[in-house]
Amino acid sequence: MKTLATLLLSLVLLGAEAQGGWKLTRDQGGIRVFQSDGKGFRNIRVECTLSGTLDAFERTLRNVAAFPDWVYGNKRAELLKSGGPDDYYYYSETALPWPLQNRDAAVHARFERDPKGQWLRLYEKSENGLVPPRDGKVRVAQSAISWIVTPAAGGQLHIVYTFQADPGGSIPAWAANAFADKGPYESFKKLAVLLKSH
């Protein structure tokens, strides 16, 4: 039986295909960013091959407090609680340019791994009701993220990242779409440096 996270990912991908498929919007430094129209905003997919190990990737993504160092636009992030060895919840705030209000979210993250070390998956989704609304910020109530990571030759990792969210509030679609192109590229460029350092 498929897990809930796998079903969620399938719905995200099927939804994007139904809305016209993926369009390559940036191909730079081995990082390929795709977008797909979705209700006035765009879904995002990133594909790249970076130097690193599955353990280094997992350590980096579990280090929530360090997100501001490499996640584009992230102002602060904090671990809220653990639901088990592969299950945790965190809070994240994204800074947007004035006059737009910052966005924040409580997120449920869960790792899945192949016992033979052939792949690692991370699923993240908004968790409503976990953190009360905070003044001056717009809560992202709907988001779904997936990371599918597989080892490649030469000590590298092939990463497929998929992101879908409704940023809420009055943010114009053009602003969200512009953020969607630069943000993933800058984040993965810094992620590449972090993975090499582990």
TrEMBL record:
The keyword Signal applies. Residues 1-198 form the START domain. Residues 1-18 form the signal peptide. Gene3D superfamilies: 3.30.530.20. GO terms for cellular component: cytoplasm. GO terms for molecular function: lipid binding. Keywords: Signal. Coiled coil: none annotated. InterPro entries: START-like_dom_sf, START_dom_prot, START_lipid-bd_dom, START_lipid_transfer. PANTHER family: PHOSPHATIDYLCHOLINE TRANSFER PROTEIN, START DOMAIN-CONTAINING PROTEIN. This is Lipid-binding protein. It comes from Flaviaesturariibacter aridisoli.
